[in-house]
Amino acid sequence: MTDPPPVRPDPAASPLLTDLYQLNMLEAYLDHGFTEPAVFEFFVRRLPPSRGFLMAAGLEQALGFLEALAPSPAELDWLERSGRFSRRVLDWFAELRFSGDVDAMPEGAVFFRDEPILRVVAPLPVAQLVETRLINILHFQSLVASKAARMVLAAPGRTLVDFGLRRAHGSEAGLFAARASYLAGFTGTATTLAGMLWDIPLFGTMAHSFVQAFEDETAAFEAFARSRPEGLTLLIDTYDTEAAARKVVALAPRLAAAGVKVRGVRLDSGDLLALSRSVRGILDAGGLSDITIFASGGLDEGDLQALVRAGAPIDGFGVGTSLTTSSDAPGLDCAYKLQEYAGVPRRKLSTGKATWPGRKQVWRSVDARGRMRGDVVSTLHDRPLGEPLLQPVMRQGRRTGPPPSLPEIRARAARELAALPEPLRALEPHDYPVRIAEPLTRLAAEVDRRLAKQVQPS
Length: 458
Known about the structure:
- By secondary structure, the protein is α/β, with parallel strands linked by helices.
- The protein contains 17 helices and 19 strands.
- The chain folds into two domains: 11-144 and 331-455, Alpha-Beta Barrel (nicotinate phosphoribosyltransferase), CATH 3.20.140.10; 154-324, Aldolase class I (TIM Barrel), CATH 3.20.20.70.
- Helix 11 (241-257) links the parallel strand 8 (232-235) and strand 9.
């Protein structure tokens, strides 16, 4: 008996990381010859109540998935042994590669409801098969980038660090959250692997357990400082926060004499506004006005905004659970829908889930100050005023150019946030205008008339 083929080292790249119904449809498409080019678009139907805008993220991983789309020997072996699928499907999978076209909004772009941020054009079975994983990648990173962008707006000029790996819903989610938050404007992450993969700046302090392991809090501070002097930040709320701040004042000269400088202190509990003020006073009185205060502990953008507006002397924040789970809005009402098949526009008419047919483009206009004024969604070949947002990123399965660097994506995201209307920058309710243009409504009416003829009794 021979051993089974080795398992793929990265399951996230598997074409079998999908819903079974994709494979069911695949077999039916092949059986009935439905292999003409299809157009699918990914978009968000409506924004969560707490979101005035969204930020696109995840395109790099989505394109990487499409580029590498091919079954492994182990996957082909399992498909055959499962007994679920015909020889036609098995042979099709053996030759599977993505050779289609992709247009997309760049990562870091702000987008709104009804606006496609990615369009796939490929033979119907292929374009259908990749749906699940593309949604999985784009949904999560866009969700986290949008949450992070709100925090960047809530705490301008402050250091913001992703602390969320341990509460993330899985390891990939933790890594993707580090990337998405950084491109949206965070300063860095505590997730070490994200630093290796994407050169994201790494931040780390110490845990309460380190302090608890010592009989004396000052001894814990000094031991840590001498072992890890670079960028030294001490956690001071394990016992009595104000007493610990005084210990830092007493310890700092001794450390300085040894060439070790305390850069900051971290608060992780309690009334952060009151404690930051009292700690700031203790440090300043002790001649340590250059020591920064960093705060963490269950924070979201509302907390950041309130602390900043109250004048809390906090220089930076670590954000975990609320970021990596997008706790106030953990899911987007998003979809990847068929808009055209074999050159014919298609439309879904389900109640509350109707789609706009055909290939579309989004045009954005700005005012004299460069602030976003409104968007228009129309057919691909319409030419309303404004800048077209979807750009070619893949043709015949190959990228149209080198991907932008993460710093370049961060710069785009910063420009996009700066161009938001003032109410959105202030995280206030604002109904940003997204207009469906007349050519698109006319096309929808034409599709409706065609569909009406199909459902009429003969």
